[in-house]
Amino acid sequence: MAIVVNMPRLSDTMEEGTVATWLKKVGDKVEEGDILAEIETDKATMEFESFNEGTLLHIGVQEGETTKVDELLAIIGDEGEDISGLLNGGSAPAEAPAEESSSNSEEAPAAETPAQELPEGVIVVTMPRLSDTMEEGTVATWLKKVGDTVEEGDILAEIETDKATMEFESFQSGTLLEIGLQEGESAKVDSLLAIIGPAGTDVSGVASGFSATAAKTEVAPKAEAPKAAAQAPAKSESKPSAPKPTPVTENGRVFVSPLAKKLAEEKGINLTKVQGTGENGRIVKRDIENYEPAAAVAESPAVTSFAVAGEEKTEEVKNSSMRKAIAKSLGKSKFTAPHFYLNIEVDMDNAIASRKTINAIPDTKVSFNDMVVKACAMALVKHPQVNTTWDDNVTKFHSHIHVGVAVAVDDGLVVPVIKHTNALSLTQIGSSVRDLAGKARNKKIKPDEMSGSTFTVSNLGMFGIQSFTSIINQPNSAILSVGAIVQKPVVKDGQIVVGNTMMLTLACDHRTVDGAVGAQFLQTLKTFIENPVTMIA
């Protein structure tokens, strides 16, 4: 019986998806767990896994085409099955009695089953909420098996959320008695994930009683309507622009998807020799299919590509969903917030000397950008008008100071947020920025680590850019653009000497920040940066 597969919602902000690549063609057999296609969202390119078995009967969106979430993506069913009714606006047949029975079996225990008393020492581990937008999670990998001893702090499993794949740490010690979800299965937050307790404890009653009320999302039955089939979550992995060596942990475990592992075993491929292109270097199906031994690669002749002199050529590259999201956000900011810009030049001689002294301390590393971020936080305390958000009827003054730091990633730009920046030391700010920037580039950053900023810093100085203007990162009222430190002649005490200066540009939303307020903020900021001793705490 045919199942309609709709365009899945692979992130909380996703409104449409683009099919980057189809890994199956019409007529191909599809097994549960096979990768159907690579879908490009506003966040990343993700592999979309089939939760159904059958034959791929129809492809609704061709490679490079875009469609809205919940629109027809494909149809899977029995070979030779007539799907003309579905293509003409009909729906897949559904067995009403079975659906009704299923509904009753799920609802009745929730209303009638009393709270269950757990055996002594037994702990039920439920699906955790690993992000503020997470409603369900998928078990990517179990790192423990039933019967294993679990210590507090051990990693139980890797959980795929709507944002990233995260390691889930155990907060209990004992023996893993029961696994409620197998690898690749999904469940709602707070559903049964595992049971931990004393070795040998019978927890079969606990598991069956708990799962009766849990909202576990299994593979959609073929009797269900198309919408239900489409809502089965897709297991996702990000696709970096270039391969990276596959990470191997200290215990020798290679990060690999179950399907890729199976293919590697069939082909006799050593996984430690394969470069992963999935999320954070994880090996996925395409890496096994495209794998060539090093010797074969070395023998391949180099290919030189050049254009004929005088030739005119234009290539159209499809805009990624992330680029579309960035364009939408920045376009809205630029054309709704009346921007104005203020420039100031800062003497960096003292900052250079102070940084050298600070970094001479063992295990200490502070950048000039860390100094700027700290100085901004201190200046915002003195100029609260800049630490605001415009609303149609009110201006919101924030008592907290959360500085966002713009970070370039392969697909665009993200802004990790340093929470309560004014309360952190220079070294703490430096450590936080490096940690969050690394997570952002590896696509492992959590949603709450990119939200809540009240002010933003964008630094292109490391690229040699001396001065530039930025578009305000709404709902902030201002953003600071930081240029390169330049050595040039300056006048000090009436003498021309060699000095080091840096240009700062403040973009302000004129609805909340007036020119005088912005100028006073920059003067205070300049004072802190030129006198780093004021920032050492």
From TrEMBL:
Q: Where is the Lipoyl-binding domain?
A: 2-77, 122-197
Q: Which domain of life is it from?
A: Bacteria
GO biological process, alphabetically ordered? pyruvate decarboxylation to acetyl-CoA
Give the compositionally biased regions (Low complexity). Answer: 91-120, 226-241
Q: Which cofactor does it need?
A: (R)-lipoate
Q: Which UniProt keywords apply?
A: Acyltransferase, Lipoyl, Transferase
Instruction: Give me the ranges of the annotated region Disordered.
Output: 84-120, 217-253
The record's annotation in CDD domains points to: lipoyl_domain
Q: Which family does it belong to?
A: Belongs to the 2-oxoacid dehydrogenase family.
Q: What is this protein called?
A: Dihydrolipoamide acetyltransferase component of pyruvate dehydrogenase complex
